[in-house]
Specification:
The chain is an alpha/beta fold and 244 residues long. The protein has two domains: 47 residues, no CATH class; 194 residues, Rossmann fold, CATH 3.40.50.150. It is globular and about 45 Å long. The protein is built from ten helices and 13 strands. Strands 5-4-3-10-11-13-12 form a seven-stranded mixed beta sheet, with helices on both faces. The relative contact order is 0.13. The protein is 34% helix and 29% strand.
Length: 244
């Protein structure tokens, strides 16, 4: 498998010269950047987090969810896939990094979703205001994260500090009595994001996919358990919760 992966990488070297190109994977068009590791997975492997996306789609479809919140949306991989679910009537994505936002908008336009998906250029937390953010300037925009909850040792030369705006999801969305599916991938800021959606989690039936590393998982699990949520599945560091 490693040999095949290396061979494919060699065949796609031409992407480095053009940098951006449009590809189609499983009926979805993507503007991809060979420099970025997530994009390379799409180019070479045909997808990124395919097992996780398939699991979330299956859960959302099984429980007839009608709203999807994509938190830490990056270039829109989850949004583009879940937009195919016929029962979803509302999709809102949150992404604070300007480069990702531009690429996400292009992907929405390519797939004629620009009038359907609400893309908000903001991060989610447990308060409203500004916060220091570490934007990855290397080959993985998906590793960008809020500075104060940075839980991993990083090569600081590959990150540029900037200020982004954050808000509570409860301030942005007033929803009650709905079936909601939520994906959270915010590189260590998960608990803060959850605390900022306390009302939404209490007032709706929700399915959550949360990427949480072992170092911060116990606190996240304790918080959700206290709110009436239980783990229903996991794929590596991605845990799936439900309150019904």
């Amino acid at each position: 498998m490693k040999f095949i992966y290396k061979l494919k990488r060699t065949l796609y070297r031409g992407f480095k010269r053009d940098r951006f190109r449009v590809i189609n994977r499983e009926g979805i068009d993507y503007l991809v950047n060979y420099k970025n590791s997530i994009d390379r997975k799409l180019i070479v492997d045909g997808g990124y987090e395919k097992e996780q996306i398939a699991c979330l789609m299956q859960l959302a479809n099984k429980h007839k969810c009608t709203i999807f919140y994509d938190i830490g949306a990056n270039i829109g991989l989850y949004t583009l896939s879940l937009s195919r679910l016929p029962l979803l009537k509302k999709i809102v994505a949150f992404e604070p990094l300007p480069a990702n936002i531009c690429q996400f908008k292009a992907n929405l336009l390519l797939n004629k979703l620009h009038d359907i998906v609400g893309l908000k250029a903001i991060g989610l937390s447990d308060y409203s205001g500004d916060i220091a953010f570490l934007g990855n300037t290397g080959n993985s925009t998906g590793r960008s994260r809020v500075k104060e909850t940075n839980i991993n040792v990083l090569d600081e030369s590959k990150f540029e500090e900037r200020v982004i705006q954050v808000d509570r999801l409860d301030n942005l969305e007033e929803v009650k009595g709905e079936l909601i599916v939520i994906k959270i991938d915010v590189e260590g800021h998960e608990l803060n994001a959850l605390r900022g959606m306390e009302n939404l989690l209490a007032d709706n039936r929700c399915i959550l996919q949360i990427e949480s590393y072992d170092i911060n998982f116990p606190e996240i699990d304790s918080y959700l358990t206290d709110k009436g949520y239980k783990i229903i599945s996991n794929i590596g560091v991605d845990r799936y919760y439900s309150n019904f």
